[in-house]
């Protein structure tokens, strides 16, 4: 069975300055691939290229095949059918991604009506409440009328996940979805994503700079350095026996309960 998403020889440049160099990876149906690397390694540019959301100054080459279609050559109308429907994205900063002066129910509804313009008002409300329940937002019948500032950081991230899930996508791109959250809320969001993946049979590209977070959710991990994928392996294999020097440095730079606090952390 072919992969759900196949990226081949993807390169990205901005104003002729390369930022991603000839990378290739695949994601199977129901699988989570972790894409990890330090800031500036090209992770977010890669995720935006999958949805053709890069600025007009970007030059993108290669192939991105999703459901037997090359997304890079698809007409814009065809691409709009995929965005938010078969491929959805969660961004890392919910207060920026959400409109502060619009009720959250309206924002979740917009994600649905963009692909179902003729749907009845009752059905739209039903879908919004179902999406809020799916991400364990409390009292959705009441809170659907609240504004983003009335929710905690973790709850705002759940709202973004509800918006991403309302159209039942096949692939979810999660770009640093836990970065702005404290460790307790971070664990809750990771558990939620794992549960949603199981119940929705969802494939996921999970992007993070934190190997410890990626280890909790990914089936395979791709390590990115300076726009190149330097290592790609099953999660357990990569953590037990990393092959690339950069991967080993990333692992060594993460403190553990046994880290010598008098010694400096490894630098990548």
Automatic annotation (TrEMBL):
Residue span(s) of domain ABC transporter: 5-251
Membrane topology: Peripheral membrane protein
GO biological process: peptide transport
Keyword Nucleotide-binding appears in the UniProt entry: yes
Example of a GO MF term: ATP hydrolysis activity
CC annotations in GO: plasma membrane
The protein's name: Oligopeptide transport ATP-binding protein OppF
Annotated source species: Granulicella sibirica
């Amino acid at each position: 069975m072919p992969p759900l998403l196949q990226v081949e020889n993807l390169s990205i440049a901005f104003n002729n300055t390369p930022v991603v160099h000839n990378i290739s990876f695949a994601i199977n149906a129901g699988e989570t691939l972790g894409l990890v690397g330090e800031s500036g390694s090209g992770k977010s540019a890669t995720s935006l290229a999958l949805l053709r959301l890069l600025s007009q100054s970007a030059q993108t080459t290669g192939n991105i095949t999703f459901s037997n279609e090359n997304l890079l050559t698809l007409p814009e109308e065809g691409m709009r059918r995929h965005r938010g429907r078969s491929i959805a994205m969660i961004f890392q900063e919910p207060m920026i991604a959400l409109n502060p002066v619009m009720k959250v129910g309206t924002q979740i509804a917009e994600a649905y009506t963009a692909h179902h313009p003729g749907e009845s008002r009752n059905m739209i409300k039903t879908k919004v409440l179902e999406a809020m329940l799916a991400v364990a937002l409390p009292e959705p019948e009441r809170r659907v009328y609240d504004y983003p500032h009335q929710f905690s950081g973790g709850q705002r991230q759940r709202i973004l996940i509800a918006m991403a899930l309302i159209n039942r996508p096949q692939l979810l791109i999660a770009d640093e979805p836990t970065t702005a959250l404290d460790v307790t809320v971070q664990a809750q969001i990771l558990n939620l994503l794992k549960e949603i993946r199981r119940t929705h049979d969802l494939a996921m590209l999970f992007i993070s700079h934190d190997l410890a977070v990626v280890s909790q959710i990914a089936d395979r991990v791709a390590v990115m350095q300076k726009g190149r994928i330097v290592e790609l392996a099953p999660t357990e294999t990569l953590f037990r026996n990393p092959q690339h020097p950069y991967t080993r440095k990333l692992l060594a730079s993460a403190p553990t309960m046994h880290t010598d606090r008098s010694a400096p952390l490894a630098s990548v």
